[in-house]
Amino acid sequence: MNILIFFEREGDKMVSRADRLHDVLTHLRYEGRMSRTKNLRAARDVIKNLEVRLEEHWNFQEKVIFPFIQIRVPRQEAAIHFLEEEHEGIKKYKDNLKRALQRQSESNASLGDGKIYEQGICLISLLHHHLGFEKRHIYRSVRKELRQDEKNEMSKRIAGWVKKQRKGKNGFAAEEADAGSFGRRKSARRNSLNSLRAHCSSRRQSHD
Ligand SMILES: [Fe+2]
Fold first, then answer.
1. Helix 112-133 and helix 77-103: axis angle, to 10°?
2. What is the 202 CA–ligand 1 centroid distance (Å)?
3. How far apart are CA 194 and CA 93, in angstroms?
4. What confidence score (pLDDT) does residue 200 get?
5. Regarding predicted confidence, which is higher, 116 or 196?
6. Which of 194, 167, 175 is nearest to 64 (CA)?
């Protein structure tokens, strides 16, 4: 498996799902009552599908890719913590949008349609930003900074993860991915972000 091609394809798939969400929400917002039932159902289907893909994206990155890179390219630690925070932000936007779509009536247009469209745009924008950031920081780092044997090892872990996903199991091979290390990583991420915020805040004050 060529991991760089794999990353490229995964990124492209997520972008096309975000584009699909944009399409269905635009139809729902602007096509009117005659197509409302069809468009609302389509939007609900797309968000459900996106939800599944996002779960895979989070699990794959937070349990396989990020721990691997964080050990081998420590200077990417802050970028990784930032991306993990964004995963939580994307999840919140996605949950809010999903709930709003579930609440909408299929037969009656409502003032909620405009709000749903705006929520969708926020989610899509965040997703695009997130995927671009990953490409520029994480995948570029994989391409330029990992040795060939490290790339091979990462490729093996990805293949193992994909295989287990296909079998419907939740396990994965990376030793960093055990529950204990995952909890420690969350705690480390919190500490790192807190010190980053404190640093930004003190810089702002010194400029005031
Ligand atoms: Fe991500």
1. 160
2. 29
3. 23
4. 45
5. 116
6. 175
Q: Who surrounds ion ligand 1 at CB < 5 A?
A: 61
Q: Which residue range is the domain that position 120 belongs to? A: 3-207
Whole-number Å distance, alpha carbon 201 to ligand 1 midpoint, is: 26
Q: Total domain count for the chain?
A: 1
Q: What is the pLDDT of residues 18-66, one digit of tens each?
A: 999 999 999 998 887 778 889 999 999 999 999 999 998 998 899 999 9
Ligand 1 centroid vs 83 CA: distance in angstroms? 6
CATH label of the domain that carries residue 8:
1.20.120.520
184 CA → ligand 1 middle, Å: 19
CA angle 28, 30, 33 (to 5 degrees): 70
pLDDT over 70 percentage in the chain: 76
The structure tokens listed for 43 are 């939007």
- Cα–Cα dist 162/172, whole Å: 9
**Residue 54: both structure tokens together:** 């996002």
Task: Summarize pLDDT for 178-198 with one digit per residue, the tens.
Answer: 444 445 555 666 565 555 555
Any alpha helices (H) in the chain, and if so which ranges? Answer: 3-30, 36-60, 66-72, 77-103, 112-133, 140-145, 148-166, 179-207
